[in-house]
Each structure stands twice: as C-alpha cells, then as structure tokens.
Amino acid sequence: MFSTMVLPPDLVADDVIGLRDQMSARIAAVLRPRGGKRKEADAPLPKGLDPLAALPPHIDKPWKRFDAAATELQGFRDLRASAQADQRHSAASEEERSAANTDSDDRWRAFEQWNAGAAALSDDGQTPAPSEARWLYAQLFPAPDGLRFITRRPRVQWAAMVQRMKTLEEERAQAVIEGFGGTRHHRQLIAAHARFGEAYGFTNVVLAKEGTPTDGRPQWSAARDALRSLIQKIESHADPEIPGSEALAAFLLAPYVEMVDDLARTRRRAPARKPEAVPAPPPEAGGMP
Fold this sequence. Notes:
By secondary structure, this protein is mainly alpha-helical. The chain has a domain at about 100-200. Helix content is about 60%, strand content about 0%. It is rod-shaped and about 115 Å long. About 15% of the residues are buried.
C-alpha cells in the first residue's frame, strides 16, 4: 500500500491539476440527486458502489479545498505563461524600437547629404535655383545643431522630426525635392518617420506590460497540502463494516494510485547517476605525489 503521508517527490503542478480533473469526473459520476434516474450518458460505476446524493462531509470539505487550491494553482500558471509571452513580445517591441530609431536616423542622414549636395550647386539659371535648396537646408538642419536632433531622447527627437516633416510638405519644399531628384529620399524618410512613430507610441497606443508573477510557491504548497489531506480522508473512509465505503474510496483514489505508479515507472526508467568520484588520499610524507 502506498503512503499518503508523503506525496511523490517528483510530483509537479501538471500532475496535481490533471489529478483534480480526473477526481472531479469521478465525483460527478458518483453523485446523483435524490430520486434522479440513471441516464445512458452517465459513467458506469464499479460493482458495490451506488450513486450518492452527496459526498460524505469528511470527504466533501477536503475535496472542495483541494479543488479550489488546484484551480488557484492553475490560474497562477496561466497568468505566468501569459505574462512570459507578453515579455517575449515586449522584447520584440524593444528590438523594433531600436531598429526603427536606426532606420529613421539613417534616412535623415541620407536626406541631409542629398540636400547638402543640392545646396552646394552653383546657379545655372535653371529652376529651382540652388538657393532654394539652401533655404530648405536651413529649415531642416539649421546651424549650429544641424543633424543633432536625431541624437535626442525619443520625445524630443519626435517633436523635432514632426516639425521638419511639416516643412517638407510645403509647396516650396516639394519643388526643391522634385527639382533636385530627392523624391526617393523623401519617400523613404516618410516611411521611416511612420515606423518611428508607431514603435514609440506616438501614432498608436503602446501599453505597458505588467510584471511577470514569479513566485508560485504559496499556490503550490497549498495545492499539495490540500491533496495530502484529501487522500488521507478518502483512505480513512474505507471501513469493511460500512457497506459501499471501500468501493467509494477505491473509486475516488484510483487516479491517485495510477499517478503514483506512473511516477514510479518514470523513476525506474531514468538512467542511474554515476557515483561521485572519491578523491585519492594525500600521499604520505616522502611518498610519490
């Protein structure tokens, strides 16, 4: 006979939650309202076990305690799994922020180089004149800061970029962009600007994630204690002098017995650990090292 005083040492939360579900199904099978007739869909009961209107009180109370503890343990595990998934998503979001920032910086550098090249041209009588390119450069990259705005904190950088993007939408700026072949530079800058705004939550909502629950020891301890108490109460219910008590105990304990056997088989199949090497005694004085 197995011991119910000490639960299997390799018991894990999945075992406890699965055992709760198995026992719940058996309890549902054995309970039947007074006067209720058996239905074809009802689970068959073993010989010697008749349906009950309710569990004996000394089993019902620990069962409800175990059911509640296992449910709380399962809830903690679900919450932790969800939070861990959120963390992985947040890590991906941080990577996207970094990539969006780099992309934006690179596009602004490329645009600045194009604008500087156009502004350095000499006046050849064509339109737009290079002076217009110099006007645009002064609007976007005024001395002494120039491109320094892309090195600022995200909020400061965003405000500076928004102001410059509005300038680029003006008719005068568009004439410079089209006249000096900067359309491709501008198009890529628009895309990088939109990516930056989304990644940092300036153009959409980015919710902060709650911290991951990490300590499930209280739930695990409560579930184990409740299971131990329940098994003991069910075992103690079996009495040869009370008809049906042994059948009920065996019926309810069957999933636990099966679980204990499964864990024992797993332990037997596990490879044996090699014994630790015993250090050699130190050499005696004058002996070989």
